[in-house]
Write a structure and sequence with these properties.
Blueprint (H helix, E strand, L loop, with lengths): L6 E3 L1 H6 L5 E5 L2 H13 L10 E4 H16 L6 E3 L1 H16 L7 H17 L11 H20 L1 E3 L3 H10 L8 E5 L6 H12 L3 E5 L9 E7 L2 H18 L5 E4 L3 H15 L6 E2 L9 H19 L1 E2 L1 H10 L9 H14 L4 E2 H7 L4 H15 L8 H15 L9 H18 L10 H14 L12 E4 L9 E6 L19 H7 L6 H16 L2 E9 L1 E2 L2 E2 L13 H5 L32 H9 L1 H9 L14 H19 L2 H8 L4 H16 L5 H24 L3 E14 L2 E13 L4 E7 L7 H4 L9 H11 L6 E8 L2 E8 L8 E3 L10 H21 L18 H4 L9
Parallel strand pairs: 1-7, 2-3, 2-6, 4-5, 6-7, 8-15, 9-13, 9-14, 10-13, 14-15, 20-21, 22-23
Antiparallel strand pairs: 11-12, 16-17, 18-19, 19-20, 21-22
Helix pairs in contact: 3-7, 4-5, 4-6, 7-8, 9-10, 11-12, 11-16, 11-18, 12-13, 15-16, 16-17, 17-18, 22-23, 22-30, 24-26, 26-27, 29-30
Length: about 900
C-alpha cells in the first residue's frame, strides 16, 4: 500500500491529543462512524470529549458555509449540491445545443460534471495541441455552465477546495493544531494543495493507522463453480463465524453489489437464520416502493387534471403502487380494476370513466375527490418550484400518502427522504425558471432517479455487505471478497470521453490508463489484505456459459480448503414430514382440442409445465395494457397485405408487370388503406395513418427485393396444414412456399420484430427456439414434400433481409447452403430427419402429459406470461 507523505499516528496516540485542537478527516461517513465507536471504547468511565471526526468532503463544504454565514465573500453565496450541479450542467448543455442534438442530456450532464471535477481535482492541463472535437464541445458547455454559476451566485463542490486552500494560505480559516487523515489510499492534486497549505500554516498533518495495522493472519483464495455457489459459500462462512464469535464484525465485499443487491438480500434472508445484516447499497429513491407510488399518483393527477384523460397503464401503475388511502384494505380491488383494463384493452380513460371505475373503491374514491380539489386550487400555467412542491404535498396528503397502517423503520425513513426531495424541488427557484405542472413532475422524477437512498444501518448487525470502494479503509474480524476475476481487479480502463486520454494519463487521473488502473488495483488489494484478521478472496469459475479467470493479483495466495468445507457444515436434523407427489402424467385424450399451433411445440421445448398450463389448462397471465403501435397488429397488417398481393399475382412475372405500371403506387396505397381499416381499426386515426405510411415503405422495399431475385412463383400463401403426432393435432398456417425455376422449393416465414432468428444457436439449442420453420418442414415432409430450403423474411423499417438454410446453393440472397455452416455435421436430408425427430419428440412429450418445471436458459422464458406460477423468479440460472 502506498504510504501517505505524512507521519503515522496510532489510535492510542490519537486518544492523547487535545480534542479541542484535533480534527480527523475520513474518506467516507462509514469510517467516521467506525472511528467514533472505536474512540468511545477507549473511554473507561464517565463522560469524556472525543476528537472531532468529519468526512473530507463534508469538512470542505462546511468551511465555505461558515465563511458565507460570516461575511458573504468571493462572489458566491452558496454551494450547489450534487443534484443541483447536474441540473445546471444539463441546462447549460441544452442551451448550448439549442435542441439540435439527440443526446441524452442527463447522461451527458453526468459525464460533463465528472470531466469538470477531474480537471479541477487532478489539476489536468490540456494544451491546445491535445484538443479534440469532444473536448472543444465540453469547453463550450463549461463556459455556459460557469456563466450560470456566476448568475446563480454559487459554486459547486468541485470548486470548493480551491477556495479553501486560498483561505488557508491567507490565514482566513481557524484550523486545529492537528489534522489526522484516515482511510485514504491516494490523494488528488486538489487535496494535496489543501494539505500543503495546512502544513505551511503550521498544522501537524498525519495519517491514522488504527484500522490497518497488520496483514491478515489467514489469507486465502477460493474458486467456486457458479456465482450462486460463491454467494452461498460466503454467507455460510459469515453464518459460522458469527455463531462462534457473536460479538465479532464481519464483511462480505462484492464489486458488483449494485447489480446483485436483490439476489444478495434473498440469499441472506434464507441462509442467515435471522441474524441481522446491512447491505450497503443505495438505490435511487424512484426505485423504492413509496418513491414509485408518489411519482405514479402525482402523474395520474396531472394527466387527468390537465388533459382529462390518461392511458390505462399510467392509472394501473398508480393503483398497483399503493401508498394511498386504504392501501392495504382495498389492494385486491385495485388489482382487479387494473386487470379489467388490461382485458378490456382500452386505449384511454377519461376522467369520468376513471371516477366511475373507482366507485368500487369507496375510500380511494373519497381520497381522489379531495386530491382533485387540491389540484384545482393550484393555478394553471407556470408556477414557482416552491408552489409546485407545496401543491404536490397537498395532493399527496389528500390521497392518503404514504398509506394506511403503522410504518416500518425503513418506510418512515423513506417517507422522510421523499419529503426532503420535495424540499429540494422547492429550492430550485434559485437555479431554474418556473415550470408548468408537467415540467415540475418531470423534474421531481429526475431528482428521484438521481437521489440515492439507503436507510440507516441496523445497529445490532455484525455483518456488512458492501462494495469495493465502501470497504476502503475498513477493518473487520473477517472479510470475504467475492467476484475477484481478471475483469474486476484490475478493471478495464474507462477514461472520461470528454477529456483527451493523453492529458488524463499525464495527470495520473483514475481509470485513464492500464498502468494507472494496475497501480490502483494493487493498492486496493493491499488494503483488502489488511482489512481483517481473516481474509478470503473468491471468484466463480463460470458465469452462465462464460468462463472466468481469477485476478492476477491473487496468484501468490494459497488456496483455502477450509473455506470450501464450510459448505458442509452440520445442519440440525430435518423436521419429519410426509411427502406426497402428484407426479402422474395426464395424457392427452382424443376428445381434447389443442389450440396454439407451433407455440405448443415451442413452449414444450422451453418449459413443459408452461406448455401444460397454457395449452392443456388454458392458463393465461394478465395481458399487458393496450399499447400502440402493437407489434402483433403490425405483423398481421403486413402479412395480410402480402397475402392479398401474392394471391392475386402468383408469379414474379405477374408482379413485375403490375408494379411497373404508373398507377401502381396509388394502387398499393389503396390496398394498404383497406387492410388498415380491418387490421388496425382500433388504432387512433393519426397513428393508423403513420403505420400505413410505414407499411407502404416496408412493402415497397420488399417488392424491390423480390424484383431483383431469380424467377419464382408462389405456390402456397397463408395455407393451412395439419401437424399430427399421435393424439396431438395442430393446425398450422405456413406463410409462404416459393418454387424456383430450378424446381427447388423454399418455405418462408415472415418476421416483423426487431431481430431475425439465428439458426446456428436457435435450432441447435436444447430449447429449440424459433421452431416455426422446423415444424413446417416436418409437416411438409410427412406429406411427401420435403422442402429444399427454409428461410425467414424480415419486414422492418430498419431494413429488408432474408436469412435461412438450403440443401444446395440456391438463388435467393441470404439463404446459405447447410454445408457451409461450421456447426453442420450432416447433409440436408439427415439434418431434416433429425429436426423432424426433435420436433415430434417434443410433440409426444406434450401428448404424454408430462409437466416438468424446467428451462434451459432464463431468456427462453422472456415471453412467458405466467412466470410467478412457474416460480421463474425463485432461483437464478445455475447452468
Amino acid at each position: 500500500m502506498r504510504e501517505l507523505p505524512f507521519a503515522a499516528t496510532t489510535l492510542a496516540e490519537l486518544s492523547t491529543l487535545s480534542p479541542a485542537n484535533t480534527l480527523v478527516l475520513t474518506v467516507n461517513n462509514r469510517l467516521a462512524r467506525t472511528l467514533t465507536a472505536k474512540l468511545a471504547e477507549t473511554v473507561k468511565a464517565g463522560a469524556a470529549e472525543l476528537v472531532k471526526i468529519e468526512p473530507w468532503a463534508a469538512w470542505l463544504t462546511n468551511q465555505v458555509v461558515e465563511r458565507l454565514y460570516a461575511d458573504g465573500i468571493e462572489g458566491f453565496s452558496r454551494v450547489l449540491d450534487t443534484q443541483t450541479t447536474r441540473l445546471v450542467w444539463a441546462e447549460a448543455i441544452s442551451a448550448t445545443e439549442g435542441g439540435r442534438s439527440l443526446i441524452d442530456t442527463d447522461q451527458v450532464a453526468a459525464i460533463a460534471a465528472d470531466a469538470d471535477a477531474l480537471l479541477l481535482n487532478w489539476h489536468i492541463d490540456v494544451p491546445s495541441s491535445m484538443h479534440t472535437p469532444d473536448y472543444e464541445r465540453f469547453l463550450a458547455w463549461r463556459s455556459v455552465y460557469e456563466h450560470r454559476l456566476a448568475k446563480l451566485d454559487a459554486i459547486d463542490v468541485s470548486r470548493v477546495s480551491g477556495h479553501v486552500a486560498k483561505w488557508i494560505s491567507s490565514n482566513e480559516l481557524d484550523l486545529p493544531a492537528n489534522i489526522v487523515l484516515m482511510g485514504f489510499t491516494e490523494l488528488t492534486a486538489a487535496m494535496r494543495t489543501v494539505l500543503d497549505a495546512m502544513q505551511a500554516a503550521g498544522v501537524a498533518v498525519s495519517y491514522l493507522t488504527a484500522l490497518q495495522q497488520t496483514d491478515a493472519t489467514s489469507l486465502t483464495k477460493v474458486a467456486l463453480a457458479t456465482p450462486e455457489q460463491q454467494w452461498l459459500a460466503a454467507i455460510t462462512w459469515a453464518h459460522d463465524r458469527l455463531h462462534v464469535n457473536p460479538e465479532g464484525r464481519y464483511a462480505i465485499v462484492v464489486p458488483s453489489l449494485q447489480n446483485e443487491a436483490t439476489e444478495a438480500r434473498r440469499l441472506l434472508e434464507r441462509e442467515l437464520g435471522g441474524l441481522a445484516y446491512n447491505v450497503a447499497v443505495a438505490p435511487p429513491l424512484s426505485q423504492w416502493p413509496l418513491g414509485h407510488a408518489m411519482l405514479s399518483w402525482l402523474r395520474l393527477v396531472i394527466e387527468l387534471g390537465d388533459r382529462g384523460r390518461v392511458e390505462p397503464a399510467v392509472a394501473g401503475q398508480a393503483l398497483l403502487a399503493g401508498g394511498c388511502a386504504a392501501s392495504t384494505s382495498e389492494a385486491g380491488a385495485r388489482a382487479m380494476l387494473d386487470a379489467r383494463w388490461r382485458h378490456r384493452q382500452s386505449l384511454l380513460l377519461s376522467m369520468a370513466q376513471w371516477q366511475d371505475d373507482i366507485n368500487d373503491l369507496p375510500r380511494l374514491a373519497q381520497a381522489w375527490q379531495a386530491a382533485i380539489t387540491a389540484w384545482q386550487k393550484i393555478a394553471r400555467g407556470k408556477q414557482s418550484w416552491f408552489d409546485w412542491a407545496n401543491g404536490f404535498r397537498r395532493i399527496l396528503l389528500a390521497l392518503g400518502f404514504p398509506g394506511e397502517g403503522t410504518q416500518t423503520s425503513v418506510q418512515y425513513q423513506t417517507t422522510s427522504a421523499l419529503d426532503q426531495l420535495m424540499s429540494a424541488l422547492a429550492a430550485l427557484d434559485d437555479s431554474l425558471d418556473a415550470p408548468d405542472a408537467r415540467g415540475a413532475w418531470k423534474m421531481l422524477s429526475r431528482l428521484a432517479r438521481q437521489t440515492l437512498f439507503q436507510p440507516q444501518r441496523d445497529p445490532d448487525a455484525r455483518l456488512d455487505v458492501l462494495g469495493l470502494l465502501e470497504a476502503e479503509g475498513g477493518r473487520w474480524d473477517g472479510v470475504w471478497v467475492m467476484g475477484m476475476t481478471d475483469e474486476v481487479l484490475p478493471a478495464v480502463i474507462n477514461p472520461n470521453p470528454l477529456i483527451p486520454v493523453t492529458a488524463l494519463a499525464q495527470a495520473g487521473a483514475p481509470r485513464s490508463t492500464a498502468q494507472r488502473e494496475l497501480e490502483w488495483a494493487t493498492q486496493l488489494m493491499q488494503a483488502l489484505q489488511r482489512s481483517g484478521d481473516e481474509v478470503i478472496f473468491s471468484w466463480p469459475e463460470r458465469d452462465g456459459e462464460k468462463p472466468n479467470r481469477p485476478s492476477p493479483l491473487l496468484a501468490t495466495l494459497p488456496f483455502g480448503e477450509a473455506a470450501i468445507g464450510n459448505l458442509d457444515r452440520e445442519l440440525p436434523p430435518p423436521i419429519q414430514t410426509q411427502t406426497w407427489s402428484d407426479g402422474q402424467p395426464l395424457a392427452l385424450t382424443s376428445a381434447e382440442v389443442i389450440r396454439g399451433g407451433v407455440s405448443v411445440v415451442q413452449t414444450q421445448a422451453a418449459n413443459p409445465l408452461w406448455a401444460f398450463f397454457q395449452h392443456r389448462l388454458n392458463v393465461r397471465g394478465l395481458p399487458p395494457h393496450a399499447q400502440w403501435p402493437a407489434n402483433f397488429d403490425r405483423g398481421q397488417f403486413l402479412h395480410r397485405i402480402l397475402e392479398l398481393l401474392w394471391t392475386r399475382w402468383g408469379t414474379q412475372t405477374r408482379m413485375l408487370e403490375q408494379t411497373s405500371k404508373p398507377h401502381w403506387p396509388d394502387e398499393l396505397r389503396l390496398l394498404i388503406e383497406k387492410v388498415a381499416a380491418d387490421k388496425l381499426a382500433q388504432w387512433p386515426e393519426a397513428l393508423r395513418e403513420l403505420e400505413q405510411q410505414r407499411g407502404f415503405e416496408v412493402i415497397d422495399a420488399w417488392l424491390a427485393f423480390e424484383a431483383a431475385r431469380e424467377p419464382f412463383k408462389v405456390v402456397e400463401c397463408e395455407r393451412d396444414h395439419d401437424f399430427i403426432e399421435g393424439p396431438l393435432s395442430l393446425r398450422l398456417t405456413i406463410d409462404r412456399v416459393d418454387e424456383l425455376a430450378s424446381g427447388q422449393r423454399v418455405v418462408f416465414d415472415y418476421k416483423s420484430g426487431s431481430t431475425l432468428p439465428q439458426p446456428a444457436t436457435d435450432w441447435q439449442s436444447m430449447a429449440l427456439r424459433n421452431a416455426q420453420l422446423l415444424v413446417y418442414a416436418s409437416t411438409l415432409s410427412s406429406e411427401g414434400r420435403t422442402p429444399d430450403a427454409l428461410g425467414w423474411i424480415w419486414l422492418h423499417a430498419a431494413g429488408i433481409e432474408v436469412k435461412g438454410l438450403a440443401a444446395e446453393p440456391i438463388e435467393v440472397p441470404g439463404i446459405a447452403p447447410l454445408g457451409q455452416q461450421k456447426w453442420a455435421e450432416y447433409d440436408w436430408d439427415e439434418q431434416i430427419k433429425r429436426w423432424d425427430a426433435r420436433v415430434r419428440q417434443l410433440a409426444r412429450e406434450f401428448a404424454a402429459g408430462g409437466y416438468e418445471n424446467r428451462f434451459w436458459q432464463r431468456k427462453d422464458m422472456d415471453y412467458c406470461t405466467i412466470k410467478p406460477l412457474l416460480r421463474v423468479h425463485a432461483e437464478p440460472d445455475d447452468e
